[in-house]
Amino acid sequence: MPKVTLRLFGFGDRADRFREETRAITHGATVRSVWEELRTTTGQEELLARIDEGAVLVLINGRPIHQLEDWQTVLDNGDKVTILVKAFGG
Amino acid sequence: MIRNISEQRILNVDLTSGQTWVEDLPREELFRFLGGRGIAAKILYQRVNAGIDPLGPENVLIFSTGTLTGTSAPSSGRSSVTCKGPATGLYLKVSVGGHLGAELKYAGYDHIVFSGASERPVYLWIDDGQVEIRNAHHLWGKGTRETDRLIKEGVGDEEVQTAVIGPGGENKVLFACIMVSLYNSASRGGVGAVMGSKNLKAVAVRGHGGLRVAEGEAYFDLATRMRQELAEDAGTESLYNWGTSGSIPGLNEMGMLAAYNFNQVTIEGAERLSGQHLVDEGYLTGRESCFSCSTACHRYVRSKSERYGDVNDSGPELETVMALGAECGIVETEAVLKANQLCNDYGLDTISMGHVLSWAMECYEKGLLKGEAEELDLRFGNADAQLEMIRRIAFREGKLGDLLANGTKRAAEEVGHDSWKWTIQAKGLEQSAVDTRAAKSYALAFAVNPRGPDHLMTETYAEFGFTEESRALIRKITGDERYANPTLLDKRAEIVRWHEDCYAASEALGFCVFTSTAAFAVNPENMAQLFGHALGLEFSEEELMLGGRRIVTVERCFNAREGARRKDDHLPWRMMNEPVPEGPNQGMVTDREMLDRLLDQYYELHGWDPETGIPKQKTLEALSLLELCGDVAQLRVGIVGSAN
């Protein structure tokens, strides 16, 4: 079964920490399916379960998904999926 | 006194003679150049001859307020300072927030033009239209905070707004800044050194007047709606929560976090430089807005450290933590806070300071710097050495401090060997930390930036397409949101020119560009309508953007007259020759061929000569810039500007 590394930033008790986990996925799993599974398995009191998807930045191996196939991007074994609360600065 | 916004007044201060006088700005000039940055560019072009020494009395120093500054327009409290820059020998404009601009408006002035140079240290005191050049002997040598405190104490008013230089400006460090309203930095290009060269320690302003817009109700209604839209923008919320350095973790994940003098694009422990970390670790003590802004991205921080000493200061901004932190291989929060505080108090630009130090660290590690660098062990990651060098640079102390105070371009000329290749600068200005190898609109924008390569003349953030609004903007500019991809070369010229026009117009009116080119609630249509309501005329989005382009073109002509040509529109050597070493953008570079392609498209779009980069006569005519045609015609036959 393929596996991806999930890196979640800013969703725990502290806004400045990554939480990393390895998660098994099905063949053909998309960013959307992993995102939805992640939200349904997260307690409703957590930000991850409540946050609007427009407010998160999702990267696959460092690349924003809108430069790929957006939420329909199919994940491969070994992919690093980073999800951050969007932040702006310049 | 209540003034109509359309009746702009210019205060002239000749520091050589000590005379002051006031001029009224012709209304048609306001319509053509929109105000603020635009009026300043025109004044600079008119009053500064080609080839003068930027640190000589022939240079001028222009403080300008945005046309809408001092009103209820959201985030419209910006001011600009304009002169011929000492780091580049070219046009220099810096923009700054705080409350100085509004205070100057209420005192009865829209612009101050300093000329000449005083024989002794002075400061300018403006009190509701009363203007006085005062002795600043007791302020000379003082840091910016102490200077601000002493001025307020001297005039007996805590509400006075100041623009102040520190020892950096006094010692003509070529990246000295001006600190405004105590904690806002008018940085880049050595604008503080120009102020120091005039023996002008500070400008202090108090005003109790007001401004009248022509169509008050319509103006207020639109300003209120824009404020509401801004409050609902996700970018605004994140700027409030985390400040500009909230984007550090994302940049690190994307391999866009410049580190170790751009030898790396990620750094271990980057999150310790983030705005989130400042909050979680309790360093953050407060948030503050500039005049008329509801975002409050400005921070106050406090730290206690046995090693680095106590800090009670503003900031740090994203570029500061990248330059003084990651670029120098330092991720200790308290060290970076201390470095930022020193730069603020000495009056030094943190971006250039970070680059100067990271370049020196690379030179030291490669064996090209000895002596003082060896004594300090000036390697990457050595925060103690960094802090000591900031002090030495501010006072030009020692051979190394004096060398580095001139910026990386001049320092590399002294150090020799391949050290020039490691200077992250072009035109003499250190680049801000965007990796222009992997972001092509930024690459083009930086290359053609009249003051040198940074993001503070044209912010093409939308090319990343991080939000629906930014992708919609790219669709509006190019016809297809697929161009919201920074690695593409196509349509970059269109994206850059739109942002140049918008940025220039935003600054002329006094808007913070975060609201128009990062968040997008303040768009050209809204700006044009507000400008129209303020002046009592119909004003379209197209006219506004044309005004922005007129400003960009005058700035370009100023540089052309100084001798700048196409060959000067380039990026730092490392950006053009050393591919990104790691991460998702590994292997990318913006080489000469790519840049030439981008420049060809850009010049053609602008109507500039493809060989020289000088605006064509028909372009000037189309922009109603007939007064520049004579100079430009002479440039073509090499009469003006060829000496440089």
What would you say about this model in short?
Chain A is α+β, with helices and mostly antiparallel strands and 90 residues long. Chain A is built from two helices and five strands. Chain A has one domain: Beta-grasp domain (Ubiquitin-like (UB roll)).
CATH superfamily of chain A: Beta-grasp domain
End-to-end separation of chain B: 47 Å
Which stretches of chain A are low in confidence, meaning pLDDT under 50 for 5 or more residues running?
A: none
- Cα-atom radius of gyration of chain A: 13 Å
Radius of gyration of chain B: 23 Å
Strand runs of chain B, count: 19
Q: What characterizes the major β-sheet of chain A?
A: 5 strands, mixed
CATH topology title of the largest domain in chain B:
Aldehyde Ferredoxin Oxidoreductase,  A, domain 1
Would you spell out the secondary-structure blueprint of this structure?
The complex is a heterodimer of chains A (90) and B (644).
Chain A: E1 3-9, E2 18-24, H1 31-40, H2 47-50, E3 56-60, E4 63-64, E5 80-85
Parallel strand pairs in A: 1-5
Antiparallel strand pairs in A: 1-2, 3-4, 3-5
Chain B: E1 2-4, E2 9-14, E3 19-24, H1 27-33, H2 36-47, E4 61-65, E5 79-84, E6 91-96, H3 100-107, E7 111-115, E8 122-127, E9 130-135, H4 144-155, E10 161-164, H5 167-170, E11 178-180, E12 184-186, H6 191-197, E13 200-206, E14 210-212, H7 216-232, H8 234-242, H9 248-253, H10 275-280, E15 284-288, E16 298-303, E17 311-314, H11 318-325, H12 333-346, H13 350-365, H14 372-376, H15 383-394, H16 398-404, H17 407-415, E18 425-426, E19 429-430, H18 440-448, H19 468-478, H20 492-509, H21 514-517, H22 524-535, H23 541-561, H24 573-577, H25 592-606, H26 617-622, H27 629-636
Parallel strand pairs in B: 1-14, 2-7, 8-13
Antiparallel strand pairs in B: 2-3, 4-5, 4-7, 5-6, 8-9, 10-11, 10-13, 11-12, 15-16, 16-17, 18-19
Helix pairs in contact in B: 1-2, 2-20, 2-23, 7-22, 11-12, 11-13, 12-15, 15-16, 18-20, 18-25, 20-23, 20-25, 22-23
